[in-house]
Amino acid sequence: MEIKGKIAQPLGWRTRGQATIQKLPDEKVILAKSSFKPATEDKDEQNEWIIREFEDRFFGKSYAVPTFVGVREMVELEADLYDKMGYKKLSMDYDWKRDVDLETLTTRKVRNKELVYFETKPWVKVQEYSYVKDYWKVYAEKHDLVLKTPQDVKAYHSEYSEHIRNPKRRGINRSSKNTTLVDFKKWFAKAYKHHAYGLPNPDSPHYLSYRELDSFMAGLGVSGMLNALSNHRNKDFDKPNVIYRKEFLEKAVAELKKQFPSFDTSKVFRES
Known about the structure:
By secondary structure, this protein is α+β, with helices and mostly antiparallel strands. The protein has helices spanning 43-56, 71-77, 126-143, 150-165, 180-193, 210-219, 225-231, 247-259; strands at residues 7-14, 17-23, 32-33, 62-68, 83-89, 99-109, 114-121. The strands form three sheets. A three-stranded antiparallel sheet has the order 1-2-3, covered by helices on one side. The chain starts with 6 loop residues before the first strand and ends in a 13-residue tail after the last helix.
């Protein structure tokens, strides 16, 4: 049997997603990127990027990836093919190919944070895997959730276990996808188009075009802003203080305040 590498401490977040938290002297990092494309060719830098993103991830976060302009934009802009910066969803949660062994549930320190750790066991039936994998997408979106604590895992394990035991509950209600993130995008799109709450007019030096705003927001982990702006109609303008307060949205709003200094951020979230 061939030994391909040795490390002191691994990071494994899914079946084909591994990184090296701590190397051994004179040994290389072991890295399986699980389709991620860090903006560097250096393997050590890729490893550090994956560990950092894993620690700091939040629901809805995206990351920049180089890509090419689409055919539609080439036609609309009467342009040739050129490269540009796109954004891809950062998906680093467990892939549910095996069931969670709750007896092993604990936390382990990665670099700077204690995050959830667990071992796994086989599913009893392949249908259980298919259901739990699909239901996780709905559950995570409904709760704006990534798996970071034992409590996160226990809560989802309890819910999907109940559904597996009770076949009548197995239907996935995809209408529950109307999440806080979606609500915020709709609300901000309306506010931006109306220049409300201190958001800039087109003649302001701080104003961003819709495409520029879409790119800026994607960098904050809020993708799909261009669609929200395009789908908005002038009627039904939202009232202030209707968005539920979430940590990742608080960070995004703080960055929006830096871009738009006159933005009255007190109008965003619901009162406690």
